[in-house]
Design brief:
alpha/beta; binds cytidine-5'-monophosphate; 7 helices; 250 residues; eight-stranded mixed beta sheet; Spore Coat Polysaccharide Biosynthesis Protein SpsA, Chain A; globular
Length: 250
């Protein structure tokens, strides 16, 4: 992929869908999570810029809270975004899955590769975005960026009232990965997954797994963490401060 121009007309076109319709209750009271400020700029704007930073991405579709599409449009208009990228804002749904499907419905026909990126991962580096796109271009129907785990993970069973949860299994940590976004897809595969898979899922790639198709992993990045709890905001501010010091990027 070229570093200094739009993708050539022969390259598959890539769009990014950003579900940003969640309330973010785990972060505590306040504005919807995607609209919280990081370094003075809303988290969603960071996430949009992170997708548009890839030269391969020529359209970003933001899925806004159902009653907040015009607010999100004004927000994007008020912040500098790359001119070579197009932006669309559509209202979201009750679940993340529905919000992603509404974003997919809004895609023009001439996009063959779709990234799905959580607004709650504002700091993903462009190299991670490009690695995901490259792997889809190389033929994978679905690609996830992921990292090995530091913690051991235990599966627990239901607890009796007032009793501690019993551990039922300890999967081998060496074979586990913590999965991030953007996840990348062959568009037709992701659309089919959203048509055929109705179970609740927490990421898009697992819908493709349920179709019986292969999903592959590329290296994720520690700065692609999800801002979920109050401490994550502290970490995100620290990452931004370090970037500003190192290279003036923010
Ligand atoms: O809740 P969770 O942290 O998994 O949300 C991941 C992403 O999905 C967030 O960016 C959130 O805004 C989005 N989401 C959505 N529509 C919903 C629920 C969550 O777009 N109804």
């Amino acid at each position: 992929m070229s570093d200094d121009s739009r993708p050539s007309p022969t390259e598959p076109r890539t769009a990014a869908v950003i579900p940003a319709a969640g309330r973010g209750v785990r972060l505590g009271p306040g504005a919807p999570k995607a609209l919280r400020a990081l370094g003075g700029t809303p988290m969603l704007v960071h996430a949009v810029r992170a997708m548009a930073a890839s030269r391969a991405v020529s359209l970003v579709v933001v899925v806004a809270p159902p009653d907040g599409a015009s607010e999100v449009k004004s927000l994007l208009d008020a912040h500098a975004l790359p001119e070579r990228t197009d932006f669309l804002v559509v209202p979201g749904g009750d679940s993340r899955q529905e919000s992603v499907r509404l974003g997919l419905d809004a895609l023009p026909p001439d996009y063959d590769i779709v990234l799905v990126h959580d607004a709650a991962r504002p700091l993903v580096p462009v190299d991670t975005v490009d690695a995901v796109i490259e792997a889809v271009r190389a033929g994978a129907p679905a690609v996830v960026p992921a990292l090995p785990l530091a913690d051991t993970v235990k599966e627990v069973g239901p607890a009796e009232p007032g009793e501690p949860e019993p551990v039922v299994a300890t999967p081998s940590r060496a074979r586990l990965r913590a999965v991030q976004t953007p996840q990348g897809f062959d568009r037709a595969t992701l659309v089919r997954a959203h048509e055929e898979v109705t179970e609740d899922v927490t990421d898009d790639a697992s819908m493709v797994e349920r179709l019986g198709l292969g999903v592959v992993v590329v290296p994720g990045h520690e700065e692609a963490f999800k801002v979920t709890r109050p401490l994550d905001l502290v970490l995100a501010e620290a990452v931004l401060a370090r970037r500003r010091l190192n290279d003036g990027f923010f």
